[in-house]
Fold this protein.
Amino acid sequence: MNRRATPRSREDPSPLCRSVCDAYRNGIRQSTSGSPARIQVGYSCDATLCTTVGIGQTAPPPVNPLRKTNLLQSACGGLAELSGLRAILALEQIDQCSCCASQVCGCDNAGSDIDADTQAEIAKLNAQQEQLEITPQCQINGTLCGAQTR
């Protein structure tokens, strides 16, 4: 995550990248158990998980771990049910990066890959990270920045 991933070709993706992108695009959270429903959970989790656990951070961790836990639940709740999670984890292990599979495979584009509801949720999650003095991935490498709600 702490580097801008080098995207692979969108025109001729590998079978692994096809599986990864399908998982991100189609991984819609259905439950509402404390987490917003109808969000592409792979993207919302990627935008929050690595930075919240300290990857790419220069400041000391926030003093209130409960707020971090709530943030992660909101961003990553339902991730275990994501079809294709193994493909995402395999690609990240191969490329030796975290929270980066959508960028490596080139399926992290607003509108064509990431839907409007997820973009709005990512923007909220980024703002919540900033409130906790966590630097969001967007500020570190320009990815998963979300869209401002109107």
About this structure: The two ends are 29 Å apart (CA to CA).
